[in-house]
Design brief:
Elements: E1 6-10, E2 15-21, E3 27-29, E4 39-40, E5 42-45, E6 51-53, H1 55-63, E7 68-70, E8 83-85, E9 88-90, H2 92-111, E10 116-121, H3 127-139, E11 144-149, H4 150-165, E12 185-191, E13 196-204, E14 207-216, H5 221-238, H6 248-267, E15 270-273, E16 283-286, H7 287-293, H8 295-312, E17 321-325, H9 332-342, H10 355-373, H11 379-385, H12 397-412, H13 416-421, H14 430-438, E18 440-442, E19 449-455, E20 460-467, E21 475-483, E22 491-497, E23 507-514, E24 526-533, E25 539-545, E26 550-556, E27 562-568, E28 586-588
Parallel strand pairs: 1-10, 10-11, 12-17, 14-18
Antiparallel strand pairs: 1-2, 2-3, 2-4, 5-6, 5-7, 8-9, 12-13, 13-14, 15-16, 19-20, 19-22, 21-24, 21-28, 22-23, 24-25, 25-26, 26-27
């Protein structure tokens, strides 16, 4: 048995970070080829027509912004979004694949061969964005062990740091597991370069239960940069300078100057913002003015925070720890706002730029230990359950897992120490392996899941939500609908992701179709639809025409659309040649 060498990757909007856990249980960021922890999330086409990423791409961005792309993470999953570089068009998936390949190459150069990676995504990412991230990793040749939400990863890193800061040794965890000294209920406020997430997590012993999550995919440090860029443009025009609005090179220089000024204003009351044109008068920006320009952004932060706390059904008096993650949380206005809202002193012990990657590395180590502890014939199933709660309806799920581990150790004659030390460079010390093996993580769905039906009340197609957002996973819901017309021979059920009934605001993530219904099926025949959302992100759909027991099942995975579909015919049903066009062939029993 051996523990595989997995790394954690924080694929960020502005910067990306790689981290790993060594065999002694110590977490460390893996330096890139420049010897730095932070790799700019920038991709460019160099003079030879090659795609480059990181610092090389930043150099191109400074001299020829038309050949460089940044902040493409904000457009992950957008089918029509492309960036034109060097005469060719690139999607966010292709750009992310280039960046991921660079990150893994640097990691391999620093630590040796890598067996796989845990990649973080914003908690508010939906199915399209998560699928696009997996697609990018596949193109980069990366074995993705798991995807984990960024705030959840940060909570894992914080729990581990709490133990170490309390005087514990990361390689001596027999009596105190990774989460034992962590706060009971923690709120993770993650404001990065392009996205904002807020997640509420309950930590009990070694169990991490996400209670609620929310945020915005279009709110981050980049938006604060935009406020400074707009101020610079107003200053240029008011002093008779050239109009930079349609000058890409000038806009790129202004954005870099804005970022530098933002960093200065974090520690000083004013900053001189460098003009984009030689000879133009500099712009002096005070922190007070910057905060005034940012009032709308702060209001959005406040609204998102209130919504998540409402979903969690918690008051701030119930919260034990408020953790700040992401470089943008360094801004004094952000720290002051969250303190005003919560009444808590924010937890800023960990470096906000690195925390998510470090948590991903902890999760990767946990996953590696769970895999190694599982019997060879059941490792795939165990890996899917690693660090997750037992399946709904399986009362003995966790007990079975614990017994499984004990049986492996006893019957094979191996201790955890032998498991760890016999695994070569990828192994962990006995104590860390024992602690990692005890950790369980239970997440929630960040977006609601439903099915497309036709409302009899409004006579239009709508999204009927079956599993609301922030439902603990795994989750399952069954609802009975009815056929809409006589003689239907096929029922197609689109599965949707979205929070409202209007279809334009929802995303279709797959379908389940019942084929070969019997002839003369009357209007109003009952159809049972069951959605199950597994802890690993897999959605399972079962639909059954109840009078004839004709059924179909589909499995919708984040890395594909419908990867498996099978239909079964039961009762007295017989194949029928007639197939109706049924974009929405169901109407919920009992009304709209």
């Amino acid at each position: 048995m051996s523990c595989k060498r997995y790394i954690g990757i924080d694929l960020g909007t502005t910067y990306s970070v790689v981290a790993r856990v060594d065999r002694g249980g110590h977490i460390g960021c893996v330096p890139n080829r420049e010897g730095e922890s932070l790799t700019p999330s920038v991709v460019a086409v160099d003079e030879e027509g090659r795609l480059v990423a990181g610092k090389e791409a930043v150099d191109v961005l400074q001299t020829d912004p038309g050949r460089a792309a940044e902040a493409f993470k904000r457009h992950m999953g957008e089918a029509d979004y492309v960036v034109r570089l060097g005469g060719r068009e690139y999607t966010p998936v292709a750009l992310s694949a280039c960046l991921l390949k660079r990150l893994v190459e640097d990691a391999q150069h620093a630590v040796g061969d890598v067996d796989g990676a845990v990649i973080t995504v914003p908690a508010h990412f939906g199915d399209r964005q998560r699928s696009a991230t997996l697609d990018a990793a596949a193109r980069a040749g990366i074995n993705v062990v798991a995807i984990i939400n960024e705030p959840t990863a940060a909570a894992l890193a914080n729990a581990f740091e709490q133990y170490v800061s309390a005087g514990g040794d990361p390689s001596d965890l027999e009596k105190a597991t990774i989460a034992s000294t962590a706060p009971g209920i923690s709120v993770v406020c993650d404001l990065g370069g392009g996205t904002f997430d807020l997640t509420v997590i309950r930590i009990n012993g070694s169990d991490f239960d996400v209670l609620a999550t929310g945020g915005s995919l279009q709110l981050g440090g980049r938006d604060w940069d935009d406020r400074i860029v707009d101020e610079m443009e107003r200053h240029l025009l008011s002093t008779g300078g050239p109009d930079p609005h349609h000058d890409p090179a000038a806009r790129a220089r202004m954005r870099m100057a804005a970022q530098a000024a933002k960093h200065v204003l974090t520690v000083k009351p004013q900053a001189a913002v460098q003009p984009p044109y030689p000879g133009s008068p500099p712009c002096t920006l005070t922190r007070e003015r910057f905060e005034h320009l940012s009032e709308g952004l702060l209001w959005r932060l406040r609204e998102c925070t209130a919504a998540v706390m409402s979903d969690a059904v918690l008051a701030w008096s119930d919260v034990h720890d408020l953790m700040l993650v992401g470089g943008a949380t360094r801004m004094p206005m952000v720290r002051r706002l969250v303190q005003q809202i919560s009444g808590l002193v924010p937890n800023t012990r960990l470096q906000p730029d690195l925390t998510v990657a470090q948590g991903a590395a902890v999760f990767a180590a946990i996953h590696s230990v769970h895999e190694a502890m599982a019997p060879a014939g059941r490792r795939t199933a165990a890996a899917g359950r690693a660090a997750s709660a037992p399946a709904a309806g399986d009362d003995n799920g966790e007990a079975e897992m614990d017994a499984l581990v004990d049986d492996v150790i006893d019957s094979a004659g191996h201790s955890l120490e032998a498991l760890a030390r016999g695994s070569g460079q990828g192994g962990f010390d006995e104590a860390f392996a024992a602690a990692a093996g005890s950790v369980r993580l239970r997440d929630v769905n960040s977006h609601s899941l439903g099915v497309m039906v036709r409302s009899p009340r409004y006579d239009k197609k709508v999204n009927t939500i079956l599993i609301p957002r922030n439902t603990p996973l795994p989750a399952e819901c069954r609802r009975v609908f009815a056929t809409r017309v006589d003689n239907q021979s096929r029922i197609r059920i689109p599965v949707l992701e979205g929070e409202v009934r209007e279809l334009d605001a929802c995303t279709q993530i797959g379908t389940c179709t019942i084929e070969a219904l019997p002839s003369n099926l009357p209007k109003g025949s009952p159809v049972s639809v069951t959605l199950r959302y597994d802890a690993n992100g897999t959605v399972r759909v079962r639909a059954e025409e109840m009078s004839t027991q004709t059924a179909a099942e589909a499995v919708i995975d984040r890395s594909a659309t419908v990867i498996d579909q099978r239909a079964t015919e039961g009762g007295n049903g017989k194949p029928h040649d007639r197939v109706d066009e049924l974009a929405a062939a169901l109407a919920q029993l009992g009304g709209g």
